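cron nightly-structures :: item 1 of 1
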Amino acid sequence: MAGSYPVNRPIIMDIIRDLKPKSILDIGVGSGFYGEMIRRDLPEVILDGVETFDYNNYRWYFYDHIIRENILTAEPGKYDLYLMVDIIEHMSKEEGHTLLSRLGRPVLVSTPWHYVQGPDENPLQEHVSEWTLADFSIYRYYNYSNYLSAIVLIGG
């Protein structure tokens, strides 16, 4: 099942709490850890998610709505924060940049350094691109990266 580095969760949650969004779109819900943490820390936030694979995870109940479409073709709507944790590496760089240009701001992106992953029960889990800070240089961003991941807040 899709997940993320546990060590990144406090960093990402600190950023979210500092931003105080009233609405969040979690792109690539996966196991739903962020939905559970966001709901606990910001109970009044409108929290929607996007997921194409049917994980049928109990943490999905923390979301107000799950959009069951591919984010590359879906119309995501307007949110105060777009969350892309360990998702952008599952798309080509062209697709990733196209998506980032379509979304509003801010967008919080986390992507692993040098981590190869093939498909599992979900064929969309394969890593098809590797992102570095240079890939985000065309955007105004803040760098929160650590030894495991590039963590950037675009337009925040």
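cron nightly-structures :: done
The chain is about 20% helix and 20% strand.
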